[in-house]
Amino acid sequence: MHSVEQARDQILASVAPLASETVSLSVAIGRFVAEPVRSAVDLPPADNSAMDGYAVRSQDLACASAQSPVALRLIGTAPAGAIFDKSVEQGTCVRIFTGSVLPHGADAVVMQEDVKQDSRDTPQILFVDKSAPWEYCRLRGEDVKSGALISAAGDKLTAPRLSYLAAAGIASVRVARQPVVGLLATGNELREPGTPLPPGAIYESNRIGLAALAAQIGAIPKIYPLTPDDLAATKSALELAFAECDTVITTGGVSVGEADWVKAALTGIGGQLDLWKVAMRPGKPFAFGRWKEKLFFGLPGNPASALVTFTVLTRPALLRMQGAGDFLGPATFASLAEPLSNAGDRRDFMRVSVDSAGRASSAGSQSSHILSALANSAGLVDVPPKTTLPAGTQVSLIPWS
Ligand code: AMP
Ligand code: MG
């Protein structure tokens, strides 16, 4: 049996990033940068005002105070988006707005709240305080210099990063292609939700949850019809899915029962099985293999097992395919509101709910067929074998999203 880390390392070693494509920033959320991106401009592109107020020469206000205000003659307005055509000479000032380019000659801005009179009433503005050079000014290039690296290969395009690239003049970006992930569910007992349920049958629930997990990380799920427990049917279902997808995920049929045809079907169509069985709970019968250059993940059928093994072992590979630099995401922590116990000899990825104060508790029964606790969980806590983590323990949380 493989440890979780051995299995993950072996899987990741088999992953080749997909080819890259150019996409508009407007549809790039969640994608991963494939090539370094450099700024097209200085940011800000010019010295400009941080406030609505008056552009001044700071030395003109060296002696200004409430007792002896300094009057400066207002010579015009510097609107946003244009260059003011005159220079601020000694004894003058210019009306300015947040983001307006600083007029030539000015080296400071005084907030309009800090002046005595307003330009509406008089062309003279009274200043009652000193001003320091570059006060309330935003300087050209202080954020980014033109040509500077603003995104490296592997960076995830989050909302703030998209804003950053847009501000730097970038309209489109090279990103790795999104893997198409075929989702198959095996089992004679399975029926489609929304259809009648005959005696002995259950509704199929893995493909929809896995499709959601895959889509959340930028993969494109493709749901295939239910596959019966039959070698020939499983082989042809796998062949079709491999022909149409970059990666194929099955659920069920990877255990040791007579009806578990998935591994035989993979090898039967010329694929290879690279590993089977991982020391984790839920999810021990997890299988991983390949068909040509495409990856195969055989997840166990129980709903908790399928979603947990996807998250722990498949998700990293789908992220790596998209060129992600980091497949674990930012660390998330919670503190245990109650003890979590694992009496078994495999690591237990326990389903926990987390309250708004970050306190985690068991989401309910940890049996792998229990959907209610799975549904109420925010994520997983990895509890080592034969271990009780006491209440108050700070734990890392593996969130569902
Ligand atoms: P298996 O891994 O095929 O032995 O299935 C283990 C358990 O999971 C059995 O109780 C199955 O009925 C159940 N199961 C398998 N596949 C699914 C599925 N796609 N949706 C819901 N339950 C499933
Ligand atoms: Mg089965």
Describe this structure in words.
With 401 residues, the chain is α/β, with parallel strands linked by helices. It folds into 4 domains: 4-18 and 177-321, Molybdenum Cofactor Biosythetic Enzyme, Chain A, CATH 3.40.980; 23-44 and 142-176, Molybdopterin biosynthesis moea protein, domain 2; 48-137, Molybdopterin biosynthesis moeA protein, domain 3; 332-399, Beta-clip, CATH 2.40.340.10. It has 7 helices and 28 strands. A hairpin with a 4-residue loop joins strand 23 and strand 24. Helix 1 runs parallel beside helix 6, helix 3 (206-216) runs parallel beside helix 6 (303-321) and helix 4 (231-244) crosses helix 5 (262-268). It is elongated. The model has no long low-confidence stretch (mean pLDDT 96). Magnesium ion binds next to loops.
Concise overview:
The chain is an alpha/beta fold. The chain has helices at residues 4-13, 159-167, 206-216, 231-244, 262-268, 303-321, 371-376, and strands at 20-24, 37-38, 48-49, 53-56, 70-78, 92-96, 108-111, 124-127, 137-138, 149-151, 172-176, 180-185, 190-191, 202-203, 220-223, 247-251, 272-276, 280-281, 287-291, 294-299, 333-336, 340-342, 347-354, 359-362, 379-383, 387-389, 394-396, 398-399. The longest helix has 19 residues, at 303-321.
Instruction: Indicate the overall shape.
Output: elongated
CATH homologous superfamily of the largest domain?
Answer: MoaB/Mog-like domain
Low-confidence stretches are none
Residues in helices, as a percent range: 10-25%
Bound molecules: adenosine monophosphate, magnesium ion
CATH structural class of the largest domain: Alpha Beta
State the secondary-structure class. alpha/beta
Spatial extent as radius of gyration: 31 Å
**Name of the CATH architecture of the largest domain:** 3-Layer(aba) Sandwich
CATH topology of the largest domain: Molybdenum Cofactor Biosythetic Enzyme, Chain A
Biggest sheet architecture? 7 strands, mixed
Distance between the terminal alpha carbons, to the nearest Å?
A: 28 Å
